[in-house]
Inverse folding.
């Protein structure tokens, strides 16, 4: 599956409406066997890409959520110390060598996401989410893993990858990533979708919504994004809002301007933005949408 | 018949391959010149992309190479223009060109600097962008009076605008750089002394005591990781500040060199991110590079708009909860003071402390009356004069407290 038209189709079947460039990126991922680095504002659907990719390959999604202080024992592997101790207590008096062989075997190894990802029979999708939240040291470690795809565990020896996972990294840009990591990856900047694509996303994701309403919502959200906001609403917020409108039985935004205004809290997530959006402003923006 | 045609055909194909490879290499070189980080691996992958049928559709090739060769948003935004310029012969947008000239060594003045190494003393001249001629009469007297005092003390108390002698200015610059270094080392030491475990790590304790049969003899604590302070400097490079810009640039250069986490921005009518240019090891060259960026296009200072740009595009990446923002400006806002106030409020929410250094505060009879500074003051944690080395040094205890 290398044609990007096919990929875009398969993605939309999986519930993700991709633009042409993202389809190219995914076909390149397969061609060059490189990880894909996705950057973009919060809520534009970076994580969704990985989920759709897993559906596209009909494989498992393994997710590693990064955070400050994330270390090897939480990301790669850890020994199950409690069980090891129990085993030592239970086999007290036996040959020390056999006990040691026993407690440092696979049975006592706790697989964490990175190790799990390289030991699957079929290549899974490995999502390394918000890599910018992890420390520099972890980034360097990850770089090594992504180039060699093997892990050495002192007590067990080197574990080579049985399959190379499809790796997707996401970043919110809270920290500058190292050039080495950036160079290693394909880069794709996920932008807010245009009206047409956003309407298609709403249609695909929200059940029981009409084409006309989804287009209206997409248009209004686009005008709202152009306002000077502290927090620009992402696609996730748009979907929340669309779901709220459908739940409240709205079929046309112009018929229910008050409901539209009252439900704007789904889109505007700071007090300042909320206070600025007076009913008149909502009405004016609604007028622009037509 | 087929025989005699196939031979030249193969030759043609080979020739085409050679030309394409040559053009591709040229394109990659252009990208490197524009600050793209492209290694050998990328080059061979780019060739693989071209070989795999993407060439047939220029649009596809463009987006495929874009994904492969960009590494950050800035690259991503400029790629299309560069691609069109190189392969389709369209004119590149001016933005790419200006960024190019600022980031790589192609700016005319840098070139001229490289081409006259014999005038290395002229490097000093490049650093002092301070127009000193107009100020000369005022300083003659003060310099005469201070003649007998110790040289260092003398310098520490002299207002930067009263320094006219190139040698004296050079000393002030060196002192500013030294000061930045002192700030850095003291901060680090304090951070380390504070580290102490505060919570028991049960998993690691068990792990570490397996050799004792699981009896917890050696306890393992969790330690709070002391993160270094991040300093973000926004320097006003407008005309009204020109007497001070030189010394502060040198101070910032020292800070960026010594702090593990520091960022610098210049603003006059717009904002420019200068950390990369500042990372040049040679101070004189870094300053020369910056003084080009510092020259404002028009007059005036738009502090509010510059802060707005900063809040919008840089703050999320540059600031975290342990950041200190240092604004160096005289507060002569030529734009909207209301905008400045609201942007200062937004900035104050994002960072730990805002320090506003106003060189004019050290002038006798100066009061912060300008509309800009009045609007900004409620959000400022420390408002201090910074017109002498002495007053710069007085900041250190404050920064160490962060």
């Amino acid at each position: 599956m290398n044609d990007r038209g096919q990929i875009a189709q398969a993605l939309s079947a999986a519930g993700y409406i991709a633009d042409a460039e993202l389809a190219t990126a995914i076909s390149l991922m397969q061609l060059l066997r490189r990880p894909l680095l996705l950057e973009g504002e919060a809520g534009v659907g970076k994580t969704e890409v990985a989920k759709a990719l897993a559906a596209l390959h009909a494989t498992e999604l393994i997710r590693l959520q990064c955070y400050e202080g994330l270390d090897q024992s939480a990301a790669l592997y850890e020994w199950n110390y409690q069980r090891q101790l129990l085993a030592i207590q239970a086999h007290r008096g036996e040959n020390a060598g056999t006990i040691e062989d026993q407690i440092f075997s696979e049975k006592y190894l706790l697989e964490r996401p990175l190790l799990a990802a390289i030991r699957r029979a079929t290549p899974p999708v490995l999502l390394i989410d918000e890599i910018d939240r992890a420390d520099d040291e972890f980034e360097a470690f990850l770089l090594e893993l992504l180039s060699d795809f093997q892990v050495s565990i002192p007590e067990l020896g080197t574990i080579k990858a049985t399959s190379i996972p499809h790796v997707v990294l996401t970043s919110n840009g809270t920290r500058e990533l190292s050039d080495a990591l950036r160079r290693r990856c394909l880069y794709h900047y996920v932008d807010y979708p245009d009206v047409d694509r956003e309407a298609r996303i709403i249609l695909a994701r929200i059940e029981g919504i009409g084409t006309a309403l989804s287009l209206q919502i997409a248009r209004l959200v686009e005008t709202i994004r152009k306002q000077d906001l502290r927090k620009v609403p992402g696609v996730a917020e748009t979907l929340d809002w669309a779901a709220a409108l459908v739940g409240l039985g709205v079929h046309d935004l112009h018929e229910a301007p008050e409901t539209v205004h009252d439900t704007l809290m789904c889109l505007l997530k700071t007090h300042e933005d909320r206070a600025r959006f007076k009913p008149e402003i909502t009405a004016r923006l609604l007028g622009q949408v037509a | 018949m087929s025989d005699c045609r196939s031979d030249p055909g193969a030759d043609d194909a080979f020739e085409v391959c050679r030309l394409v490879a040559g053009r591709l290499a040229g394109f990659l070189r252009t990208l490197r010149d524009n600050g793209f980080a492209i290694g050998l691996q990328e080059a061979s992958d780019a060739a693989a992309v071209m070989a795999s049928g993407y060439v047939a559709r220029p649009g596809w090739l463009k987006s495929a190479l874009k994904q492969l060769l960009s590494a950050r948003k800035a690259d991503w935004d400029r790629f299309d223009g560069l691609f069109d310029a190189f392969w389709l012969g369209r004119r590149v947008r001016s933005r790419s060109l200006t960024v190019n000239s600022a980031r790589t060594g192609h700016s005319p003045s840098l070139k001229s600097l490289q081409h006259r190494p014999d005038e290395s003393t002229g490097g000093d001249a490049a650093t002092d962008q301070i127009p000193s001629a107009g100020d000369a009469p005022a300083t003659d007297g003060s310099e005469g009076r201070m003649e007998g005092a110790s040289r260092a003390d003398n310098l520490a108390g002299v207002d930067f605008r009263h320094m006219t002698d190139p040698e004296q200015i050079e000393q002030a610059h060196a002192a500013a750089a030294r000061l930045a270094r002192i700030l850095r080392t003291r901060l680090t030491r304090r951070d380390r002394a504070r580290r102490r475990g505060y919570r028991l790590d049960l998993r690691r304790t068990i792990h570490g005591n397996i050799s004792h049969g699981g009896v917890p003899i050696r306890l393992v604590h969790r330690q709070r990781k002391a993160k270094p302070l991040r300093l973000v400097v926004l320097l006003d490079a407008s005309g009204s500040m020109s007497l001070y810009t030189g010394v502060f640039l040198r101070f910032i250069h020292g800070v960026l060199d010594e702090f593990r986490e520091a960022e610098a921005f210049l603003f006059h009518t717009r904002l420019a991110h200068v950390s990369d240019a500042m990372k040049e090891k040679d101070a004189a060259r870094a300053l020369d590079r910056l003084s080009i960026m510092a020259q404002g296009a028009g007059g005036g200072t738009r502090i509010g708009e510059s802060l707005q740009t900063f809040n919008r595009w840089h703050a999320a990446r540059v600031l975290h909860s342990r950041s200190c923002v240092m604004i160096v400006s005289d507060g002569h806002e030529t734009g909207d003071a209301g905008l400045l106030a609201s942007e200062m409020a937004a900035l104050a929410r994002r960072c730990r402390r805002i320090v506003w250094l106003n060189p004019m505060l050290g002038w006798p009879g100066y009061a912060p009356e300008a509309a800009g500074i009045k609007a900004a003051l409620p959000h400022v944690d420390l408002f201090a004069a910074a017109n002498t080395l002495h007053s710069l040094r007085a900041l250190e205890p404050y920064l160490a407290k962060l």
